[in-house]
Design goal:
homodimer; 245 residues; Rossmann fold; DNA polymerase, domain 1; 2 domains; 6 strands; elongated
Amino acid sequence: MEIDYTNIKVIGFDADDTLWVNETYFRDAELEFAKLLAPYETANKIDQELFKKEIENLPLYGYGIKGFVLSMVEMALELSNGNISNATIGKILEIGKDMLNKPVELLEGVEEVLLTLSKDFRLIVVTKGDLLDQERKLEKSGLLDYFHHIEILSDKQEANYSKLLNHLDIKPSEFLMIGNSLKSDILPLVNIKAQAIHVPFHTTWMHEQVSDNETQDKSYKTVGNLLEIIPLLSRKKRNAMVKND
Amino acid sequence: MEIDYTNIKVIGFDADDTLWVNETYFRDAELEFAKLLAPYETANKIDQELFKKEIENLPLYGYGIKGFVLSMVEMALELSNGNISNATIGKILEIGKDMLNKPVELLEGVEEVLLTLSKDFRLIVVTKGDLLDQERKLEKSGLLDYFHHIEILSDKQEANYSKLLNHLDIKPSEFLMIGNSLKSDILPLVNIKAQAIHVPFHTTWMHEQVSDNETQDKSYKTVGNLLEIIPLLSRKKRNAMVKND
């Protein structure tokens, strides 16, 4: 299906796993956590229980590393039946601090894509999670100058995006979102009649996964790599030039 | 000293301990924490060490309840020399969850002040801390309709405020900030030549305290109660009317 991007004025980029590596660090942390809890349960069970605990705590803690660490501590108390050592609790806190201190590792093509698209579009970042942590990553990324606006949301549902477009004073049809999560970056946009391009990352948090029938008949494009977006959107320019002739 | 508020267009309200009770809950949590750690140290020492730990972790965790809880867990491991019980760790996590679940308790006069001032000024909330927690409190407060804009900052320093005024497209002289913290709500504003009114709360976190010589020769007003702001600012209206005659 050919999608027409001629009306697009503003492009929103998701940050975690779209501009830079993130989910990989959570996967690594989960593996470390499973090792620490290995005396009490199988890795598989630990993984499942931690996920359940994160989802249970999500309404209270929200997204981000601090809530994840608090859930790990709580899970360690439970899975060990109250027998977890102080040393292990200390190691869980360290996992969290290491995650917060991680350098920002840009994904392939990010700078080229931002440099190219910033010539024709207003670019913004639309990310969710912990305010300080996301600001710090943006700062470390060296990408701040490409963006007109940074929006850090507590969640990425349709209402959050509608509010954002209102604030940006643009119509849904003038907004294109680019991100790795079907649930957070693509479907809510398609549902409010904005555009979206899906750039999958090799790892997706279970909470962000959607079933096939949720994506059926939804109009969005999937590309294998951020760089594939450039020709899609430069077509916009060509179309506009033809129209203006 | 008479301060002239005739140019003010936008009024920013701090939230915690200006619109609603907050610090009191932290004080209560610290008391509970000191009780839990009583087998290991004096209440005074526990208090001092917890404060040090919070400040040490502030650059990494930022403001808010989740970072506070992580600091309490870390402190419990340290103060007990690795002998803290799993039950106590569990209770520390519960302190945090209780704090996040607290109802919002509006301070005296808040609704009257917002109702009155919203007729003549654009009101915004300028708060720092955890994004989800602050959004939740605003939602629970029932005050959202009074505000044109909600700004949740990771910190409240001069640069954060300058960026905000830029974003609001107003001059510093057109902005008045109202809040309980000299360090976060008053001095940075005075330093960038905006206006500020200090409404002290009965409890101030040690980190927010400033020395007398920091406030010397600074031009801001202190009132004993939010309601005292109304007559100060209705003078603005009268002045404007005289000018227009």
